[in-house]
Design goal:
mainly beta, Neuraminidase, 4-stranded antiparallel beta sheet, globular, UDP phosphatase activity, calcium, Apyrase, GDP phosphatase activity, metal-binding
Length: 250
């Protein structure tokens, strides 16, 4: 559900098992060797003392550590009752492979408040990056809703918001990029290398369960809200959940 460079390796993250894979033979357009995904770590949900792998949705590097997070929303039943808050935790891995778990409930609540989506409203996250140059968190939500969660309606709660938060989430700005297309929400993004973290390439994806339809769009914009490339459909009718540059620019 994400791609990220860490420790000189391009990693991919599975949102069902919590496995972190190292990718090999991904370079170039015409590869002479088949792509390989080699399991390197398993990250557990919540505080780490769980029988379920983390539902990875985003990953980013901050101060030499890999931050791996989930949707940032409580898991609820159809009546809105909270069943689990494991997706509000973030796993942090150091360069030796040791993992600690941080409770980000307050951070995600601050983002909800800034977006006007406090409980029972919600925000779903799949795209969060740390900017080492600006020393800020950049958050591009997949879903933004002032209404309680509903399986069918959730598909139409896409977002055009960009949230910029200070390191401790005490100061938060919200900007808009283009117009809202309800079915489209951000699934991944990266800062364009050598742009001083001022230009973003992002993926927005669509999932329509009734029609068994998926598709993705790519777009480029700057952090001030100026569109540099309009949302353009990626051929192939697939949901892309990660974007990365083929070289580690960190």
């Amino acid at each position: 559900s994400e791609l990220a460079w860490f420790n000189g390796k391009l990693l991919a993250f599975d949102d069902r098992t919590g496995i972190v894979f190292r990718l090999k033979h991904f370079e170039g357009v015409s590869m002479t060797k088949p792509l390989q995904a080699i399991p390197e770590h398993i990250v557990m949900e919540g505080d780490g003392i769980a029988g379920k792998g983390q539902k990875h949705e985003w990953a980013t590097v901050k101060d030499g550590e890999l931050y791996m997070g989930s949707v940032g929303k409580e898991f609820t039943d159809n009546d809105g009752n909270v069943i689990s808050d494991g997706n509000l935790w973030v796993a942090v891995m150091d360069r030796a492979g040791d993992v600690r778990h941080e409770d980000w409930t307050a951070n995600f609540a601050a983002v909800r408040k800034a977006l006007g989506c406090e409980w029972p409203g919600y925000v779903v996250h799949e795209a969060i990056e740390w900017s080492p140059i600006r020393r800020q968190w950049f958050i591009l939500p997949r879903r933004v809703s002032t209404e309680p969660y509903n399986d069918m309606e959730d598909e139409k709660r896409g977002s055009n918001k960009v949230v910029i938060a200070s390191e401790d989430f005490s100061s938060i700005q919200v900007r808009e990029i283009g117009k809202v297309t309800p079915l489209r929400g951000f699934s991944s993004f990266k800062f364009v290398p050598r742009s001083d973290d001022s230009v973003i390439v992002a993926i927005k994806s669509v999932e329509v369960e009734d029609e068994q339809r998926q598709t993705s769009y790519i777009t480029v914009f700057d952090v001030d809200g100026n569109m540099l490339m309009e949302e353009t459909e990626i051929p192939g009718a697939k949901k892309y959940e990660g974007v990365a540059f083929a070289h580690d620019w960190s």
